[in-house]
Protein 1
Amino acid sequence: MRPIIYAANWKMHLPPEDARQFAVSFRDGVGTLPGRTLWFFPSAVSLEAVCQAFRNRPDIRVGAQDVHWEPRGAFTGATSIPLARGAGATGALVGHSERRHVFLETDAETGRKVRALVEAGLTAMLCVGELLGEREAGQTEAVCMRQLRAGLEGVSGAAWDQVLIAYEPVWAIGTGRNATPADAAEVHRAIRAELARLGAPRSVPVLYGGSVNLGNVAALLAERDIDGVLVGGASLDPAGWAQLVSVLPA
Ligand code: 13P
């Protein structure tokens, strides 16, 4: 059985002390859950506090929300991989839709970030997903496959063990309108087929994200091709998150 993955993307929330308190109360209240791996993606300034709190929990991974591909230099505002690693992170999100559509990050840039992460020995969680207009125009698969191919260019061999994919339809993020499990599963199957064409082993996890909550998580995880969830809003409250990660596939 592959572990189910529950990932929390805290976006621009939870400053260091709040993040630390969340992590400590979660760590002390929720023991290791068999068959599950948890990821937390705090903001860059809260990264170290969360890594510290979870340092003795091998079932819990902590990553940055974004990284630059250059290891150092004059990139005001950016977080390098060595900086994230120095704070304790073992991975990062790449190409989240807010990076792509708010900060106008390109497909090519996501590829550079994924390659830099795996070369540095960290894990990349590459996010892909279509805009509402693209879905309505029947371009969902074309968009996701393009993002996937560009983001994973140059990944091969053992590096696949350092890659996860998150399918996040942009129209479902923060809107309360999740993709139905069947709709999500259809895109997940296409992603899996593309991953196989790119030479990835079946073990590369593919997560779903977009308005995941306590009410829909079990049904989403019940789909064979959905290996986990990437959660924004419903990951911000410690009690709610503790409940959500305890839900198993329906
Ligand atoms: P919501 O769960 O708030 O829709 O956010 C999803 C997301 O963007 C996670 O990366």
Protein 2
Amino acid sequence: MVGSITLAIIKPKAVELGHTGAIVHTINAAGFCIRGLKMMRMTRELAEEFYAVHKKSDFFNGLVEFMTSGPIVVVSITAENAVVSFRNTIGATDPKMAASDTIRAKFGTSMQMNAIHGSDSDKNAIRETNLLFAPEEIFDQKRS
Ligand code: UDP
Ligand code: MG
């Protein structure tokens, strides 16, 4: 593995709108390496655990409802300083506030449906990756 890891989720609305390919391309073009990628649908239990930190927020129920509403694409990513540099690539939580060249600005449709998730710390990147990927679904490669 080169550098550190982070976890991305292409959220249901972005998948539904057909943005998966463009977003995966953007991730690679921005210099991140993909070490795991799959389409899946979150159960309510998994979504509640994934977003447990937000359990007391007023947006929690709507967020869980949305994240379980259709298929998502989960991507395990590695790069130097992966968490911070990926957060810069996706942009602010509200797509309207995100810098124009970011994934959320380009593909997000609302605060909730902001196209993509990115881990907020190294600790959460590992926790989230372990929640969504089995060890045999991860492929660390030497840089050629
Ligand atoms: N969210 C929402 N309403 C809000 C704030 C957040 O629906 O007022 C959703 C949004 O999809 C966001 C997710 O909850 O990506 C997690 O919120 P967080 O504050 O952790 O933002 P992020 O780390 O994703 O930028
Ligand atoms: Mg967050």
Protein 3
Amino acid sequence: MTFATRFAPSPTGYLHRGHAFSALTAFEAARAAGGRFVLRIEDIDRTRCRPEFTEAIFEDLAWLGLDWERPARVQSEHMIDYEAALDRLRGRGLLYRCFKTRKEIVEAAASAPHGPEEPFRGDPLPPEEEEALLAEGKGFAWRLSLDAAREALGGFDGLAFVEDGHGSVQARPDLAGDVVLARKDVGVAYHLAVVVDDALQRIDHVIRGVDLFEATHIQRLLQALLDLPTPTYRHHPLLTDAEGRRFAKRDRAETLRDLRGRGVSPQALRAELGFS
Ligand code: GLU
């Protein structure tokens, strides 16, 4: 039996306890199974990611006692792989250009017939209108058309994934609306890069926080559209602090470097997080 899992942080800040918990969960699962543990740096968003945070990820994980297959995959070095996947989807008529600004999307949501929570569904523009906007130099994102995807697959009923320990889950990609697969500013988007990389890195177990459970529904659809295998998923609970709040970079949670700086040992942190 093979077993390959990964930890895929975005270098938008320093790692904190929540990341350590997630990385250790995946690493220890790979070790228990005698499998592979892979590290992936998800840095396609050049507006938010910084190289010094990537370096810090390597350092902090090594300090924690983790070891991963070298070299780690750094997404920004592989844009060509994501472009190839986008080309495939475009070639099948599954993507359309969306010229709407963030503000226009928020406004459209506010007046949606079923309220602001209704998933975004756009409409491809008629070719003349599109050409005019392109000629004006107006920016656009590529969105996945749920209607076209549904038609290509003959419906979404056959889309399921296994949640480890819970059996088969029916994927509901329709709940997310027409997701962006290539952002206006960075040329690719999270969901696309993740499914391409999970396949290229031969990941058969995706272990990550439950905050990404919804993402799995979309990623399952993309796997079907790109003829990629579907890994087994395990979404672990998020680590919370003494007040029950989850650790998050934006809350300025104490980072692994801070812990290290005040003399906490990796063994002590591992024990605190429930790992021996
Ligand atoms: N890069 C994502 C994050 O840091 C994780 C992606 C994933 O595990 O699929 O939240």
Protein 4
Amino acid sequence: MKVSVVVPLYNEEENIQDLYAKLKQALDTSVPDYELVFVDDGSTDGTMGLIEQLQKQDSRLIALSFRRNFGQTAAFAAGFDYAQGDVVITMDGDLQNDPQDIPKLLGLIGEYDIVSGWRRRRQDPFISRRLPSMMANWLISRVTGVPLHDYGCSLKAYRRDVIKNISLYGEMHRFIPAVAKWYGVKITEIETTHHPRLRGKSKYGISRTIRVVLDLITVKFLLGFSTKPLQFFGPVGLLSSMTGFLISCYLTLDKFLYGRDIGGRPLLLLGVLLIIVGVQFIGMGLLGEMMVRIYHESQKKPIYVLRQVLGHTPVRREDLSTGRAGDKQ
Ligand code: UDP
Ligand code: MG
């Protein structure tokens, strides 16, 4: 079993040597066949120079270098693209994760498809990091239905086929387990060691929490409704239009039965607004339905994920592309 360790590095020149040494120490004894994939995320310090030096001495090290800083998620995505391993491990490059935990993760990967680290005794400031992270983890677990204590922990192990199926956007690497759950993979978590950052600076501040919540909305919507957007927008639209319609009926009766003036009443505005908003929502849902079809049919993407096929009869790709399998996920 080949193992790839993917590490994103952005201005981590003080940590590279130590990181490399600790990774070697942890892997040389316990993992016979491994490779290191270091991704330099457009560092402006000496990070890439140091990686280059290491690469010259070690053919097990693959070095990727971004033209500019594309972010941690992009760095993971690039690492996944180039990783050859049957199992892919991700971890931070600032030595806050401990390479000694890698064998523990690997021990569970046969039974599970994803093993996620849990920084139970996390060594970061409480107010600015741990508290927002606790709230975010609680929220993500509730919303996605994948109960992990620590979504933000980079130290995770994935079976190759799991990550090769997932495309990453924005800052979504922390949501891989949630997306993978949709594919039906088995996930577990184990406690891992966490160290304080000794050298270099953290690249994130408190504003990340807000971005995580926005990403959560995207993930929830895509997982729940990406093949049936009208089911999401439709009910809201119908409810809004119906309410607007009833309000307008009431006002019409008031005018014609009782002869009351309705021109200056706020209720009239509300009724009209609700009707228009409702129509917009339904229109948006219908546009969404068209986009889903274009997305799946133009790229011949099926709307299901197979585990295996027994008694295989060759399937024509054009049959797969019609998406006639209903709206089941
Ligand atoms: N990182 C990166 N690109 C970025 C920001 C961070 O590759 O734009 C890397 C960084 O070098 C480190 C890891 O992602 O290896 C985690 O970053 P950091 O330690 O700053 O995050 P924190 O531990 O404070 O959440
Ligand atoms: Mg860190």
